[in-house]
Automatic annotation (TrEMBL):
This is DNA damage-inducible protein. The keyword Cell wall biogenesis/degradation does not apply. It comes from the Bacteria. Belongs to the RelB/DinJ antitoxin family. Gene3D superfamilies: Met repressor-like. GO terms for molecular function: cis-regulatory region sequence-specific DNA binding; toxic substance binding. It comes from Legionella antarctica.
Length: 100
């Protein structure tokens, strides 16, 4: 982290007076909290870092991954338990290559 970013983060921590709330799956929050704790950060620290970068760079500090329609449909099917299974790698590969 560069000096300017670190300085801005510390400046915003010292003058923090706005509250940001977000709804997120509890399991994801627990996992993220554990990862952040291993870095010496809290979830609030991570949000401050993220929002400080967004404000200073006028962009997200990462490329968001947006699934296409085919992927969205596959995700919905998986949530409904409609997963396909294969008896071997060869049969999986045959199915994957069927449209080629």
């Amino acid at each position: 982290m560069g000096y300017n970013v670190a300085y801005k983060v510390m400046e915003s921590i010292m003058t923090a007076n706005a509250v940001v709330r977000a709804r997120i799956d509890g399991h994801i929050k627990e996992e993220a909290s554990a990862v952040l704790a291993s870095m010496g950060l809290t979830v609030s620290d991570a949000f401050r870092l993220l929002l400080t970068r967004v404000a200073s760079e006028k962009a997200l500090p990462f490329e968001p991954l947006v699934p296409n329609q085919k992927t969205i449909e596959a995700m919905k099917e998986a949530r409904r338990g409609k997963l396909r299974s294969f008896k071997s790698i060869d049969s999986l590969m045959d199915d994957l290559n069927a449209g080629d």
